[in-house]
Amino acid sequence: MPTLATDQTQQLFSLIEAFPLSGLSLADFCQQAGISPAKFYYWQRKARQAAAPPPAFVALSLEPQPTALPLEVIYPNGVRIQLPGPQLSLLRSLVTLLDACSA
């Protein structure tokens, strides 16, 4: 069931739509409609906002950015392992392999 507020809103939106067809000045139109020019402009802005399409969804594609410093492990025998970032699973495999070789 429509409420009083929505009925009044629709009436004011109808007034806004009728103004360009009236051929009257804004002051004369508002005087005949029984509203102030400020109220007219307020409801004109509301009508434009209601008619405007909602902002469109914008798809973004993000490229991965390097966020970590390179990781380096140096063994006492001089062997160095350098990785571009914290790739823990790869590091674990390399350390296990090197420990097995040196044993």
From TrEMBL:
This is Transposase. It comes from Nibrella viscosa. The lineage of its organism: Bacteria, Pseudomonadati, Bacteroidota, Cytophagia, Cytophagales.
